[in-house]
Every structure is written in C-alpha cells, then in structure tokens.
Design goal:
Order of helices and strands: HEEEHHEEHHHHH
Helix content: 25-40%
Strand content: 5-15%
Structural class: alpha+beta
Largest sheet: 3 strands, antiparallel
Radius of gyration: 21 Å
Distance between the termini: 41 Å
Number of helices: 8
C-alpha cells in the first residue's frame, strides 16, 4: 500500500473502495490526495475490522458522542457529517478524549506509538538485527513493485512522491545490473514455451 504511518491512521471509512481495491490518501505529504492499492487478501479482514469499528461508533452515538474531527471548512459546510459513519476513522483510538485545540470530547484516530512499539517487539522476537520501523514497510512496498516490473512513474504516484528522484532511490536497492531491468532474453521462454524451436 505504501502508506506513511500517519496516512494509514488518518484513513476514514469512505477512503476505502473495496470494489476497486483502492485507498484514497487525503492530504498526504505536501497536502496532496492520492490513490493507492491494497491487496485482495486484506479485503475480508478489513471488512471484519470495520464491522467492529462500526459497533464502537454506534455505542459512542448512544452515549452522546460519535463525533470525529473534520477539517474546519468541512465541519462548517456539513455540520452533521462528523457523526456519520463514512467520516469515522478506520483505526480509532481506544477511548474518547478531549481535543486539545477545542476541548471537544471525541474519539480520535489511533496514536502511532503503540504500532511502533509492536513493530519493535516483533523485530526483537524474530531476531532481526537490522533497524525496522513502520516506514520500512513503505520501502518494501516500493522495492517489490520495482522487482515485479512496475514502472517508476506509477510507483511515484502510489507513494505520493513530488519528485521522481525520490522514487529513483529504490532502483539502487535492487542489486541488479542494468538499473534493475530484466533482460528480454530472460522472457523468451514465456513467448516460446518450453520448446527450443
């Protein structure tokens, strides 16, 4: 998916398009929106997760809460939207708390620190002696796309890089000759089958 951790935590329910297997990242780095993909294998687990989140939202509404933060212009234009299901965070915080800017009590998105701690713990348990963070998964996403032959401009778009030179960094980690390009000769068996003629 190639999301930065905060982009993932700020996802709202309406940012997920199950039919297209796409996520819309809103106001990512550089305040730009972009669309990226997510794997088919995550469709059912994500739907199940959202069922649980919806129950939490319904309980919050019954308790007189259920409101989420909306950017000022949206909150003013659509005053009831903050309690609608589609605007809720995909990864809500475990409890309701006061917004430090306004004092309004509501459920915010999950904080990144428990995720970072869980990753650090998993890395230790796996005996990995390299530095691994949530951002490592973003790098891995880009590297694997390159290895699969995805063009650099598509990867740039999926990652939300403003400059192609930022995306080009990933070509150096492939450790292949010819800028990571697979020789067409290696694909001949695909076209000719197993026969040498």
């Amino acid at each position: 998916m190639g999301l930065r951790i905060i982009e993932c935590l700020r996802l709202r329910v309406h940012d997920i398009d199950f039919a297209m297997k796409a996520l819309t990242v809103r106001s990512g780095k550089g305040a730009k929106d972009r669309v990226t993909t997510f794997p088919v294998t995550l469709v059912e687990p994500l739907k199940e997760h959202l069922r649980r989140v919806k129950l939490i939202h319904e309980q919050d509404l019954k308790a007189g809460y259920g409101e989420v933060y909306l950017p000022y212009a949206l909150a003013r234009k659509y005053p009831k939207a903050s309690k609608e299901w589609q605007w809720q965070y995909v990864f809500p915080a475990g409890r309701i708390s006061a917004d430090p800017r306004t004092g309004v009590e509501r459920r915010h998105h999950l904080d990144p620190s428990p995720i970072n701690k869980a990753i650090a713990s998993a890395v230790r348990q796996a005996g990995i002696d390299k530095r691994v963070s949530a951002h490592t998964f973003r790098h891995s996403f880009a590297t694997h796309l390159l290895q699969r032959g995805t063009d650099i401009r598509t990867i740039q778009s999926l990652l939300g890089h403003k400059d192609i030179s930022t995306t080009m960094i990933y070509t150096h980690v492939l450790q292949q000759g010819g800028e990571g390009v697979v020789s067409p000769l290696d694909d001949l068996d695909t076209y000719l089958g197993s026969s040498p003629y």
